[in-house]
Design goal:
It contains 4 helices and 14 strands. It has 274 residues and is mainly beta. It folds into 2 domains: 166 residues, Probable tRNA modification gtpase trme, domain 1 (Gyrase A, domain 2, 2-Layer Sandwich); 60 residues, Elongation Factor Tu (Ef-tu), domain 3, CATH 2.40.30. Strands 1, 2, 3, 4, 5, 6, 7, 8 and 9 form a 9-stranded mixed β-sheet that branches. It has a 5-stranded antiparallel β-sheet with strand order 11-12-13-10-14.
C-alpha cells in the first residue's frame, strides 16, 4: 500500500471522468432536498447525501453545496438523470427548479490524516471520507480550478491503484448495480442525519438502525479466485453475498463484498477477511 508519501510526493491523485453539475433553485430548494434525502441540508451545508425511495433503498448519492438561501449545486455519483427524474416527481407545489448547469472535472485525492488537504475552498464542490490513516477527497472543479493545486506534490495514480486504495479504506463508489441496497448496508451512516425531520424512506432506515435489523455488511476480503464485480460469493454451497469491487494485486484479488451478516463466520481460508 505504498501509494502515498514517497520522498517526492505527499498526495496521490486520480483524474476521474467529468460529471454533470446541477442546480436546485427556488424558495423551497433547501427544504425540498432535505425532505428528499438522508442528510440534514439545513445544518450541513456541504457534504454528501443519499436519495432513497419509500422502502429505504438508494436511488443515488449526491455531493452537494448550499449556496445562499435559494440555491444548491450538486453532482450525482451515478452521473445520470435517474435521481433528477425521481426528485422531479415530488415537485408539486414547491418552488423548486432543477437544471443542468455545466460539467466539472472530477479528481480523487488521497492524503494521510496527519497532512489534511487545504485546497477545498479552491474548487466548486468537494466531499471527504476518512478511514484508517487516510482521508479520501473528491473534488469537482471547473477547467481552470485544478491549476490552483499545482503547488501540491501529487503522485498521479492509475484506476487500479485508486481501486486498491478504496478497498483498503472500505470506500464504496455507488453505482446503478447497488440501487436495491440501503445506505446502512453500504456503510453510509456518516451521511444520514438521525435527528432531522421526515424524508422519503426515513421510517424504514430508522427502523433498521434502531432495531439493528441491517442484514448485510461490507467486508474487505482477499482471494486467489478470479472474482468479478457483481458475482456471487459462494462458500459451502451457500450464497453469502456479492462482490462490490475487486482488484488484482500480484497473485491475489482484493475486494469488498456485501455479505449477509449470518454468514460472515464462513469467510476464511479460500476467501480471507482482511
Amino acid at each position: 500500500m505504498n501509494l502515498l508519501n514517497t520522498k517526492k510526493h505527499n498526495s496521490s491523485i486520480y483524474f476521474d471522468k467529468n460529471h454533470d453539475i446541477f442546480s436546485m433553485v427556488g424558495e423551497d430548494a433547501i427544504s425540498f432536498l432535505d425532505r428528499m434525502s438522508t442528510n440534514n441540508i439545513f445544518k450541513i451545508k456541504s457534504s454528501r447525501t443519499a436519495i432513497t425511495d419509500n422502502k429505504g433503498a438508494i436511488i443515488d448519492i449526491l455531493s452537494y453545496k448550499v449556496i445562499g438561501d435559494k440555491n444548491i449545486i450538486f453532482v450525482s455519483d451515478t452521473d445520470n438523470n435517474r435521481s433528477i427524474e425521481y426528485m422531479k416527481k415530488y415537485i408539486i407545489i414547491d418552488d423548486v427548479e432543477i437544471n443542468r448547469i455545466g460539467e466539472l472535472n472530477k479528481l480523487v485525492i488521497f492524503k494521510n490524516k496527519a497532512q489534511p488537504f487545504q485546497g477545498l475552498d479552491k474548487v466548486t464542490l468537494s466531499n471527504q471520507y476518512e478511514n484508517k490513516n487516510l482521508i479520501r477527497y473528491e473534488l469537482f472543479a471547473s477547467e481552470d480550478e485544478p491549476k490552483t493545486l499545482d503547488n501540491i506534490n501529487f503522485k498521479q495514480i492509475s484506476f487500479n491503484e485508486k481501486t486498491t486504495l478504496d478497498i483498503h479504506m472500505k470506500y464504496i463508489t455507488f453505482n446503478e448495480s447497488m440501487i436495491k441496497t440501503n445506505p446502512l448496508e453500504l456503510g453510509f451512516k456518516n451521511i444520514i442525519s438521525f435527528d432531522k425531520g421526515c424524508y422519503v424512506g426515513q421510517e424504514v432506515i430508522a427502523r433498521l438502525y434502531n432495531y439493528k435489523k441491517v442484514s448485510r455488511t461490507i467486508v474487505p476480503f482477499k482471494t486467489k479466485s478470479e472474482l468479478k464485480v457483481n458475482s456471487k460469493i459462494i462458500i459451502d454451497s451457500k450464497n453469502i453475498g456479492n462482490v462490490l469491487s475487486i482488484q488484482k494485486n500480484s497473485d491475489i484479488f482484493l475486494g469488498l463484498g456485501l455479505i449477509k451478516k449470518r454468514f460472515t463466520n464462513l469467510i476464511s481460508e479460500e476467501i480471507l477477511n482482511i
